Amino acid sequence: MGYLKLLEIENFKSYKGKHLIGPFKKFMSIIGPNGSGKSNLMDAICFVLGEKAQNFRVRKLADLIHGASIGKPIGTRCYVKMTYKNDDESETTFTRTVTNNGSELRVDGNTVTTSEYHSYLEQINIFIKAKNFLVYQGAVEQIAMKSPKEITQIFEELSKSGELSTDYNKLKAEMEKLKKDTHFNLQKRRGVAAEKLEVRDEMKEAKRYQTMKDSFDKAQMQLYLIQLFYAEKARDKAKVELQKLNEEIGNFHRTKIDDEEEIEKCEQELRKAVKELRRMENEVEKFERNLITFRPELIESKQELAHVKRKVETTKKIHLTTAKMAKEQEQNLKELEKQQLSLQDQRKKCEEKLKKDSQRHSLHLDHEQIVEYNQLKSVAEKQNCRVTSQIEELQQDREAKKIGIHRAQHEIKTIEDQIKQKESELERHEKSKTMIEESRENQIQMLEEEKKSLVTVEKEILESKDLLEKYSNRLHEVNKEISDAHGDSIETEHTKRRNEAVENLKRLYPDKVHGRLVDICNPTHQKYNLAMTKVLGGNMNAIIVDTDDIAEECIIYLKEQRYFSEKFLPLNSLVINSINEMLREISEPKGVKLLFDVINCFQPSIRKAIQFTTNNAVVCETTEDARHMAYGIAGHRYKSVSLDGTLFQQNGIVSGGSLELRDKAKKWDEQKLRKLREERAELQNKIEKLQQNAKRNIEIEIKQNQIKQIENRIQFTKFDYGKLQNEIIPRLRRELVALRCQLTLIQPRIDIGEKELKEIEEEIEKLEVEKNSISDSIFANFCQKIGIDDIREYENREITFYQEYQRQLKTFEAEIARLQYEIDFLKSDDKRKKEKEEAEKIQKLQEFEGKLEMKVEKQMTELKKMEGELRKAQNNAADQRSTVLKKEVKYDEAKKVVQTIDRNLSSMEKKVKNLEQIEAKKSQKRHSLLHECKIAGIEIPLKSGRLEDVMIMETSDDTDNNDENYDPRDIHQRHIIDNIIIDFEALEDKTKRLKSDAEIEKLIENYFKAVKDAQGNLAKISAPNLRANKRMEEVRSKEDETKEEYENARKKAVKAQTAFEKVKNERYKLFTDFFEPISQQIDEIYKHLSRNESAQAFLGPENQEEPYLDGINYNCVAPGKRFRPMDNLSGGEKTIAALALLFAIHSKNPSPFFILDEMDAALDNTNIQKVVSYICERSKRDMQIIVISLKEECYNKADGLIGIYQKPTNVVTSSGVLTFDLTNFKSNLHDSMAAV
């Protein structure tokens, strides 16, 4: 395979002038510092290979000329020429030139078009769109992180299968559309065929329909006649039995009235005793709540006191440590100040001594001698110019060395001071850590104690709740049994919620909501109980309020609180009839009274509601008297009720019996009732005691808050301890180690400096000797005249004194400055101030501790007082419970007399209820059957009346409603139904003589089955369609049309599918021919790159049938590691994986050369060696590789180097190029290694 041989660049970007780069070796490395122009060299290669202008970070090609970026192009053109050596050793040149007017492309010197130029390049496997010859900087790792879909896109571009994607998508959409059209026409054709069969069936069924309908009508009439016959028979029988039973119940009620007066007296006494007991229990509960609330406050105060005491002890320890450190600081400060004063005195004495010595040794010359000295000095300086210059340079070096040594010595002193400071700080933090650790251990111990206490309390409360639930359930059962024995109703959850709602409304609207009607009035005598309950009916539980607005607000509140709906009677909107005074004067029958007059009203303001609900109703002694008042007085009808609860209304409706007014009572003997009372008292005592523990939830919350506070303190302490342990102390230790390391590094510098200083002084001494010999020859006569051995005796005498004077002064000043620095440092860290702050803190804590102790003592006294009050209240409540128990026993004995009568009445009232229900049910059934016959058009033979007059009527099971709740239309309808007489002659005699319900039900069931079968058979046949023949003609016409449409659509779909399959196969072949070799080679390449056979690389499509439609998964298993997703690999592992993919792709679509820009950026030295070894093998075998690298481990293995450097310039960056052949060096290295 050919390769890139030479590259010639002229005025391209940063390359000014002409540069000939090469020859390029099989493995070439481009090196150079950042900003030197390495990337511009890559741009030059891309430029000559036909890359577009926008990829060179310029707006137009003319901006590529050197200097154009700053508006000062160096010329009017630039070019890049590439010399390519072919397989047959011939050479081809590719040249691309840019001028201000455009660009020019040449191949072997001949001008060509862009397409021809690209064609020449593609002949040597260089594709500029796919860039199969180049990997840009930073792109290596990005290749490994590409999504499966992006990897598929790369393969589409390189395999050129992507060029068919437009035709593929277009033909696929067309094929799918035509398939849908074909399917639509097929379904349409099938629908027409089904419609044809349907028309045939309609014609057959029409005939059968009429025959079966006649049979159904006859069976249906027989069924309804049988049901109506037995419904009337059962209704008439129930009416006769009901009248007899009501007369017996009235006799029992009159016997019971006198016995109930004694019960009422005992009940009033019991209510007073229970009310007093509740007051005492509320008082006990109040004391208990106060005690439960107070105890946590006392516990919290004790804990706070214990915490403050521990804090005082900790602060005292800190204060002692701070005082000790302050004392040591003051001693050190006094010692340093003493040393500073001593040095100042020594400096003063030294200055005086030097002045005296200078005056004693000074030598004086006359004017002529000075002039002669100056002339000779000038001559000597000229002759000693060279030597003097060397001496001055050496003296400067010597002074610099001395300054460096002095700085290093001063640095040592500074570091030693810092080490002392850090050691002191470390010691202080170590002590703080110890104290914090002790405090944390105390807090943890306190936390464990509090948690144990909390667990104990929770366990006690949980046990108490379990027992409380158990005892409460049993108490509920006992109360239920006692209530049943008394004949009272059991209060259900529904009733409790409704009562709770009324109490809440009375509390929200005092004096405006009066309560339920049943709670605020009662009959003057117990004998009126049933009569009053019957008349009040649905209004009995109504809530009395003042106005409509109050009623609306109450309704809104009930809805918001999700209570049950209630009936309200607003007093301001009730329309009432005036009281008929004539009813108060009736003497016959005897005992007739206005019901309003026999009701006691506790609140005069609600008398209007009572008047509204009673509505001039009268109460009579017997049922006959009530019937007489209702219907027996000519011209007058009154609403009347008897003492046994039989109600006669003006509209003719009569309702009787008292089962609706009372609940069933169970039989209890006296002994069992007494045991139940005793068990209830025992359960109440246990529940009361257990409720004390159950109310300790506040104590749990307080303990939980205390535990949370301790945990927070532990967390803060842990944070402080952790900060000292993991941050501050390690940091100080690291800083000490670093300072000590600096100390060890500075001394060698001083030794080296002193050695170099000694060498400089020796050199100066040699030069001084040379200089002195010249000066001695010039000043010989002059020295003889003034009587000295040489001129240096005169010069040195003056200079030496001055230098010595300056040296000693600098020494004193340096030492004084060092001492002053240490003094200032110690003064800045005032330990006495910290000691004072800690002392003030101790004083404040001790004052707070005293206040807390007084508070705890006061709370203890208050606790004892509250416990005494609680015991006294509990004793009073226990005495009152005994009194209540005695009253209950007396009340039970009084009620026992009435229980026998109640049991008898309950049994009889149950029978009344059953008979009433039978009568109502059969009447309703007769009405329903007649209405069904009317609706269904069934012709029933009648003796009188008409089915057309039968209407649907609202039904209600509430027989207690007064006549205001009846619709006049319902009364008229009942009258019509009663006047309808059915002719049962059509029924056979044996059908009418059936006795048992089973026989009747069986007969009705047989007829019902016959009707149902006939109806089922009839339902299977739809009504005949008279247009069936005409519809058949229309269906046949549709059939011909749909057949033609289907054939046309099918042919188009087959043609479209053939075209699509052709493009699909072509695209699949292009893609798989390119992909398969790469997927087979990539594992081997990855193993070679990793230098490990355990490494694995997988390249697989998500869609096996059409891989170009979905992603291609690329996964690698690094040597010695488990499988991980690509984004979890390290930077080096990602780079190796990316290179494996790049080399695999390149092996399928190889360009003659492969350029990698800083592909080793994320690699460590080991991975670089592996990659470079692989590159060396490939470059020797089948490809030319050019690598841009900044790492020596990479470029030292190359066959040659191209060095890029930046030339100095003031205008625009200019790059220079150096080429270096490493082949000879590598061969010599191999030879030397072989010799070894």
TrEMBL record:
GO terms for biological process: cell division; sister chromatid cohesion. This is Structural maintenance of chromosomes protein. Pfam families: SMC_hinge (PF06470), SMC_N (PF02463). Belongs to the SMC family. SMC1 subfamily. Residues 228-290, 319-356, 391-488, 666-777, 802-925, 1025-1066 form a coiled coil. The keyword Cell cycle applies. One of its GO terms (molecular function) is ATP hydrolysis activity. Residues 511-630 form the SMC hinge domain. Keywords: Cell cycle, Cell division, Chromosome, Coiled coil, Mitosis, Nucleus. CDD domains: ABC_SMC1_euk (cd03275). It is found in: Chromosome; Nucleus. It comes from Panagrolaimus superbus. One of its GO terms (cellular component) is nucleus.
